[in-house]
Design goal:
Order of helices and strands: HHEEHEHHEHEHEHH
Bound molecules: zinc ion
CATH topology of the largest domain: Muramoyl-pentapeptide Carboxypeptidase, domain 2
Oligomer: single chain
Distance between the termini: 43 Å
Number of helices: 9
Number of domains: 2
Number of strands: 6
Length: about 250
């Protein structure tokens, strides 16, 4: 047995002895010691100790079984975690905007977006930014146009209701290949998506609407839609294959 192990064991023994003594005196004083022999008091204290140890063990086991105990230390109230989905209406939220390659974004993601695009181009990929920020007014217009055509209920399955589109946050972008602009699931086979999904987290972005998670995100699989959440959260989300909804749920 190593020296440190011995020290740990003796520390545990001392702790147990202290608990035991504290237990005895606690019971003795709370019950006035009346009617209990020292032997009875010892048994009672022993029971109390066993219970405390098993509670402690349960706590440790619970902690070890939480697969997300290593989640990053972030504040979900930060601007990069704003959530717009069918269940979270952000009203007429408008970030401070700046243009990049014909699209508008929240000024705070211009730099990481530029860096990511530059890195992708350095790999020979032909990056096309096709949809950034979309205003509440534009979303209302898009929605009403569909609602006139199909009725509100069906329209809501095609176009996000005003206030519930992530594009209104200014924190996302649709990214496709110049030579492959089809926004459907087949886009995942492009080199562009292969590279983006592998490297986006290094720049603080995530694949926001992964395959088979429609019931959680409310949106179909979109291998072209990337969302900024900061490097720490992005690395964690991509590594654990989470949606933004599931990630934020870890902090509830
Ligand atoms: Zn999109």
């Amino acid at each position: 047995m190593e020296y440190f192990d011995k020290r740990a064991v003796s520390a545990a023994v001392i702790t147990a002895a202290v608990w035991l003594l504290a237990g005895i005196s606690g019971i003795a004083s709370s019950k006035g010691g009346a009617g209990h022999s020292p032997g009875e008091l010892l048994i009672m204290a022993g029971g109390q100790l066993a219970q405390e140890v098993s509670e402690l063990e349960a706590e440790v086991a619970e902690d070890a079984s939480d697969p997300y105990r290593d989640r990053p230390d972030i504040d979900t109230g930060d601007w990069m975690f704003i959530l717009a989905n069918p269940w979270n209406d952000i009203g007429d939220y408008t970030p401070e905007l700046e243009y990049l390659e014909g699209q508008q974004f929240d000024v705070r993601i211009i730099e990481p977006m530029e860096e990511m695009v530059e890195a992708a181009r350095a790999e020979g990929l032909s990056v096309l930014l096709s949809s950034g920020y979309r205003s509440y007014a534009t979303q209302t217009w898009l929605f009403n146009r569909k609602a006139d055509e199909y009725g509100e209920k069906i329209a809501a399955t095609i176009v996000a209701r005003p206030g519930t589109s992530e594009h209104q946050t200014g924190l996302c972008c649709d990214i496709t290949d110049h030579y492959y602009e089809m926004k459907d699931a087949s886009l995942e086979n492009t080199q562009m998506y292969q590279w983006m999904s592998r490297h986006c987290a290094e720049y603080g972005f995530i694949v926001r609407f992964p395959k088979g998670r429609e019931d959680i995100t409310g949106i179909i699989y979109e291998p072209w839609h990337f969302r900024y959440v900061g490097k720490e959260a992005a690395a964690y989300i991509m590594e654990h294959d989470l949606t933004l909804e599931e990630f934020l749920e870890l902090y509830q």
